[in-house]
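Here is one chain, start to finish.
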Amino acid sequence: MKHRISRLLYTLFSISFCLTTYAQTDSTRISPWFYSVSATGFFRNNEYKEPFGIGYTLPGYRLSGAVGYQKDKWEVSLGGFLLGYLGAQSYPQHAYGNSFTNISDSTRRKNALPFFRPIFQIKTYIGKGMMVQIGSSDADHQLPDALYNKELRYTAFPEQGVRFRGEWRFLLLDTWVDWQNFIFPRDNHQELFTFGLAASFPFHLSTTQKLTVAVKSIGTHRGGEVYNIQPGETAQTRLAAALGAEWHYMIHPNASIGLSGYGLLSASSRHSRPNGLGIDVTLQGRWKGIDAAIEGWYGSNYYATWSGPFYNALNTASNKTRFVRLSLAYQLYQKEQFGLRLQGDAWLHPGGSFSHAIALYMSAKL
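Its structure:
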């Protein structure tokens, strides 16, 4: 039954996409109907040094598509989202594949289909530069890694909730609530949602230089009244915020440099966890298709629910985190809606140990 439902959802999604594609081929008139397709393939290998976690390889893909209708200041869209991991099916039983004794069909997910989530989104433009949206969202809120791990851009499901975005001359404002766990009657688990704010104040110093002052924060709350609450399942809120500035200088159309610095605070409603502090400074440069960056981080008792592993004090016995990160990325191919990018990162930890990661990303947007 589960497979039949999945196949039905795939069929409906494919039919709606094909019908909209056909409608868009008529370029002689402006249609209120529109469609969007976004596909990303990723192959990332992380080798982490203890105690920050064990290494793992993350190969997979994201595919989302939606059909929409626009009228006046309103937009409504409906579609689907797929997230799949390569090799996340039963191991192929051919040749000597079953000779690997540590691979067992009884302990592996046998569903060959990727994870599917429906997409529904309704938005309206309520004024000059202002937008309100309810439903699914795959927006990039431009948060630093100390608040939100960029790897989640490839592994997390689209947000589901409400979002407000405002864009004015001296202020870019983005606020959102992502509802991650819903309570049905007589459930014994609690609500869970994430909320955030990103406010940027850009100042154009010249035609080639821009200074941006930014306030960014993200929090997670677990709570709500439940039928049979379990021991230890009490309301809890975790917050993390960053205040800083970013400077960007365009040397020429193919080269630029930038410098950013943030001071960060973290707090939890649980009294057993002290407030945390963090300092993050990043110098980056771009030349043609090459991006390079060096980042320095220091944290004391700092903890953010969705941050990268090297920022969190939970992973250390001393409650302090320090590292220097070197990053190098090369845009192998970029033309219109298609891109191919290779990226490598290395984190130097105290004592001379280091972690590293290498990733290949492919993307297409239609």
